[in-house]
Amino acid sequence: MSKSASSDTQFFNSFSMVLGILIAFAIVLFAVARSIGADRQGTAVLAEPLHLASVQKNIAPFAQVAIAGKDNSALAALSSPAGAAPAVNVPATGEQAFTQVCSACHSTGVNGAPKMGDHAAWGPRIAQGKDALYKDAIAGKGNMPPKGGTTWPDAAIRMAVDYMVSQNK
Ligand code: HEC
Q1: Ligand 1 center–CA 144 separation, angstroms
Q2: Which of 12, 63, 95, 147 gives the lowest tally of CB atoms within 10 Å of its CB?
Q3: C-beta of 145 in contact with ligand 1 (< 6 A)
Q4: Residue 41 confidence class, pLDDT cut points 50, 70, 90
């Protein structure tokens, strides 16, 4: 009786050990599979648009023509690496917006842009009311490109208009 009990214990011990090893092995396999899977999925999602964008860039024409007064935002989209132009460098203040972009035309008066500080040029424009100025600055007018050629949100353009109006009253 005591002999059979001891052989049962022995059997049980080796059986649990084998079982334990198998379970540990399964866990290791599972972990390895998970990490390989996550790796592959991660790069597949990231790499594909990047790859597409680089192909797009390689087959894009060398030169692009930006036309004043037309919506040129598609050009920016083509040359940006992600394929779509993100609203980069969105200014925090109207003054920043003006300095970054609007000043290119509005501090020199190029192409008939109303110049900063030129009250005679701004007077009748400001008299139209801010809503008209916002609308023209966002949609474009004559040689004024929509949003000054930026992809900024409307709010940033309105801030810039507010700043320009405040400086030209
Ligand atoms: C490429 C040159 C150029 C840039 C850049 C530019 N503008 Fe202009 N803007 C013009 C010209 C030219 C006009 C005059 C359009 C007209 O009256 O025919 C104008 C007119 C305006 C007017 C007056 C619109 C009206 O109703 O009379 C506002 C407001 C204005 N721009 C705001 C901006 C703001 C804000 C920016 C920057 C985000 C900006 N502009 C960037 C060229 C430019």
Answers
A1: 4
A2: 63
A3: yes
A4: low
